[in-house]
Amino acid sequence: MVAMKINEDLQKERSKYNFDVEELTNFLDWGPQYTLRRRNLEQKVLNVKGLLDDIPEEYLSHKEKYENAVRKAVLYYRILQKENHSNISDEEKTRANFRNMISSAVFRDNSPFSLHYSMFIPTIKGQATEEQKAYWLKRANNMEIIGTYAQTELGHGTFIRGLETQATYDPETEEFILYSPTLSSYKWWPGSLAHTSNYCVVMARLFIKGKSHGIHPFMVQLRDEETHMPLPGIKLGEIGAKLGFNNVNNGFLGFENYRIPRDRMLMKNAQVLKDGTLIAATNSKLTYGTMVFVRVLIVNNMANLLAKAVTIAVRYSAVRRQSQPKPNEPEPQILDYITQQHKLFITIATSHAFYINAMWLWEIYFNVNKDLGAGKLENLPELHAIACCLKPISTSDTTVLIERCRLACGGHGYMLSSNLPQMYGLATAACTYEGENTVLLLQAARALVKAWSVRVEGKPLKGTMAYLAGTTAPKKWDSSVDSIVKIFQDVAIRKVSGAVETLKDYQKSGLSLEDAWNKASVCLTAASEAHGRAILLSVYKSEMDKRTASLSSSLKKVLLQLVELYVIYWALEKVSDLLLYTSITEKDITELQRRYIGLMEKIRPNAVGLVDAFDFRDEILNSALGAYDGRAYERLMEEAMKSPLNVEPVNETFHKYLKPFMLGKL
Ligand SMILES: CCCCCCCCCCCCCCCCCCCCCC(=O)SCCNC(=O)CCNC(=O)[C@H](O)C(C)(C)COP(=O)(O)OP(=O)(O)OC[C@H]1O[C@@H](n2cnc3c(N)ncnc32)[C@H](O)[C@@H]1OP(=O)(O)O
Ligand SMILES: Cc1cc2nc3c(=O)[nH]c(=O)nc-3n(C[C@H](O)[C@H](O)[C@H](O)COP(=O)(O)OP(=O)(O)OC[C@H]3O[C@@H](n4cnc5c(N)ncnc54)[C@H](O)[C@@H]3O)c2cc1C
Fold first, then answer.
1. Can you tell me the ipTM of this complex?
2. Which of 516, 497, 520 shows the shortest CA–CA distance to 508?
3. What is the mean pLDDT of the chain?
4. Does any ligand 2 atom lie closer than 6 A to the CB of residue 149?
5. Terminal CA-CA length for the chain
6. Cα 282-286-287 angle, rounded to 5 deg
7. N or C: which end of the chain has fewer CB within 10 A?
């Protein structure tokens, strides 16, 4: 094997760590056994020939990009499918996949099968009867069929109750007739829908004997299994080029009186009997189950995206030298600039905070899911409320921080070969999909307003809302990490009480609840954000205290420095709230700022170690700037040479246009 030549600056950085990188990797992976599993899977995938692109995706046309993505998806998912067949529970599978990012070695812009795994299979699991599962899950797991989740329509994404696609039951033939009555009722957006899937779960409005019974899921065959032609009555196509997700084959779908048998309605929660009798679900929101599952997944996914982005930006910042602050001294590594550390170290800490919160959220999800299996629904609203805070906060923070990582790489960060712009595209999509962020914060606000009325009635509050029973009196400032975390709860109490007051005031002025809600909605989303931040901070702190107990003291110290950095960063970001609701003074704020700078100095020697511990192989980073060896300039040049424009020294446009133009002939 040829020894890898490592950039000297990076080599020096790697001699400075004061913790064990492998120990941190194991910690982030949820245990060493999962590190091993992840690495084995990565190796298996990377051993497959033809999976990695010779020509970068971005030089392909829209059509070629899709075709190349499908070619790779087939090779890639065959391996994944074998892994998923191994005999482990969903809970175990989740842990094993927690930091699985190998797909980003294969696709920079997501995959045409991602909806099959992230939504189609989970919907069958969550919405189908045992009998339906036995049939459909087997086919889906074997990838005999490829599916997607078709909910959003041209006219409605957010407002599910406004969906127009009709599923009318015909008791004569025991069939549902699917119909798209308007242009706005066309399904629009589902990934894989355009040319990849041959089946999908369609969310449609159920009509029985002329009466509407709300939205229900239906398993629908879209294409002939042999020829892949759209079936008669199905209108399918692709929605066109997007900011990102260009491998994902998002499509549109309309129905012209398309008939499906009765047993194609997924009937775990609600059933339509042969004679058209409807047995309604115990809770109509059970139909929204897949969305909750994906919202939970997203927090973990954002932690992974951030980890990748910051690995690239920190390694690049260690090899990049710029400016000359001290005369006659060499140009410093840009990582030594405090402003650069301010951009990057919070990104490392945020990734940890999201990992820890995602682990915590997964446990809640699995417990609630077990309860649902036993017919117990009482913890579902809380899970929904938490997901409606953490999904928006994690996606919007990730979007901001990936952009910050890109800016931290200067001009080179603007190159697609850095992979940072594509990661931005993936993160910002998540602010919209699976429930637009503002809309979800407003859902969480409903739960908070309800909780407030429970408090007013003097009844106990449960779980993540229990702290809302605390006093609304101004808080004495105390700068210990534990106290600041607690103060974020106090800020949330004040914001919730303020939002409820605003809402009530508008109602008292004569507005309807709906109009008052609309007028108070900026305060309401701010209250939800504050509640979400309070959860994020307290879970990060308390879980880290718990989980680091068994770690070496050196690693524990580094991890707790990041917790402190995160807490102080947010205290400074939200200083206006602290000034409003606590006794914090200008002197306290200056002290916090100094402490924040001091922490960055402590973290600085470990910066490269911290990102190395994310343990992303170069293929996964897929970036000219972030490779382990730090040869950023060489790779930028290698990538530039892949540009199709560099194939010939003179482009034909010279003869066709430039020359005649310069000679005044054009
Ligand atoms: C295991 C293996 C692991 C490995 C797995 C494999 C790994 C794969 C790799 C993974 C990588 C990860 C990345 C994935 C990539 C994905 C790609 C992109 C996918 C993008 C897909 C999409 O983008 S797909 C469409 C999503 N489209 C929405 O997301 C619509 C939002 N819109 C709403 O969601 C509703 O429209 C909205 C607003 C609630 C109002 O709904 P509405 O009008 O019916 O309700 P109202 O407002 O009237 O009422 C509200 C009352 O309902 C209660 N409630 C409402 N929802 C509830 C719920 N879910 N559960 C319980 N309760 C609920 C609430 O708590 C209120 O309760 P209360 O009344 O007591 O206050
Ligand atoms: C990359 C990508 C992939 C997707 N994949 C799928 C898929 O596989 N399957 C699928 O079914 N769908 C998919 N979607 C669709 C996605 O779920 C919707 O776009 C999303 O739910 C937002 O709905 P919308 O587009 O109707 O936005 P709108 O609801 O129209 O939002 C527009 C604006 O209106 C505001 N707004 C809307 N309602 C309210 C309200 N009640 N109060 C205050 N403000 C409001 C929003 O905050 C936003 O600012 C995908 C979308 C994207 C971008």
1. 0.97
2. 516
3. 96
4. yes
5. 57
6. 120
7. N
Residues 260 and 317 in one domain: no
- 161-190 pLDDT, tens digit per residue, is 999 999 999 999 999 999 999 999 999 999
Domain that holds residue 224: 149-287
Inside any domain, residue 633: yes
Radius of gyration (C-alpha) of the chain in whole angstroms: 27
Which CATH number do you get for residue 181?
Answer: 2.40.110.10
Looking at the DSSP assignment, which residues form a beta bridge with residue 221? 199
The residue-averaged pLDDT of 122-131 equals 97
The preferred substitution site among 433, 434, 517 for testing ligand 2, maximizing ligand atoms within 8 Å of CB, is 433
C-beta of 402 in contact with ligand 2 (< 6 A): no
pLDDT for the residue numbered 80: 84
At residue 618's C-alpha, the angle toward residues 613 and 621, to 5°, is 80
How many angstroms does the Cα of residue 299 sit away from the middle of ligand 2? 18
Could you give the dihedral angle defined by the CA atoms of residues 373, 377, 383 and 388, in that order, rounded to the nearest 10 degrees?
110
Alpha carbons 124 and 290: distance in angstroms, whole number: 9
Strand partners, 333: 321
User: Which residues share a beta bridge with 279?
Assistant: 271
**pLDDT(31) > 70:** yes
> Would you place residue 416 in the very low, low, confident or very high pLDDT band (cuts 50, 70, 90)?
very high
